[in-house]
Amino acid sequence: MLRDPSRSDTGRASPSGGTLGLTLLTATAPATWGTTYLVTTEFLPVGYPLVSGVIRALPAGLILLAVTRRLPHGKWLWRSLLLGTLNIGALFALLFVAAYRLPGGVAGTLTAVQPLLVVGLAYLLLGERPTRWRLGWGLVGVLGVGLIVLRGRLSFDLLGVLAGIAAAGVMAGGIVLTKRWGRPDGVGPATIAAWQLTAGGLVLLPLALVFEGLPSGLDARALGGYAWLSGVGALLSFLVWFQGIGRLPVVAVSFLALLSPVVATLLGWLFLDESLTPWQCFGFVLALTAVAAAQLTPDVVRDLVRTPATAKGE
Fold first, then answer.
1. Contact 96, 53 (CB under 8 A)
2. pLDDT score for 190
């Protein structure tokens, strides 16, 4: 009898090469989002966070709509509006509020609770029972991100704290609902990304016009920054992200978002001369370990550990 290559000798499922490749590809999306802080502070005009959110989302959505040539209809009209608001519009707005009102990376730590929220929502909406394994690694991930981004004396702003927690909540809700509803027949990730990016951008547009207005005198540096955020940070990254959500376990995917503050801190160290302390390096190890461990199960880990020992005994 032929042996299933995706299973170990003990009969338990083990990660296949295809799943590993898809996980690594999906991880590029939150890693790309980690470049947002560097691009915003070094390339974009100051004081236009909502406008930046619109420019990041809406052009990418419209380009994908032009390519896919398919509009939502029926129940997918309100579903796309809700998902676009959660995954794009509300998320961007709340992250900016938290970032502006909370010093020292507190916002990054608050949003790191998102995998734990996904565990709870996945149980309520998808029937995926929470495991002590992923709950434990969720707490490890929060601790790791906290060690990475928390520096110096801390002060807390209630509105900023609430915005940070709400940002984690809307992203968790968007991830789980995207998994629950899936996609209409014949609709691919590009179309789903088009609908949600366009809806999220349109939700932010009136807020940006009322509270900020349009920036003037954009130079080549700013235009390049906006092109990166829209082309790579939205169009390409959300294509990859929605494909991953559709095919990978939703809780495992949620842990990949921990890569954003990790990448943001690394870029600050590389390009902005921001120093890294030993505690921050330890935080990197914890966060990356949590991301990797959440993609596996205890049975698979035991098999991976047992296999080299068995081979050595032979």
1. yes
2. 94
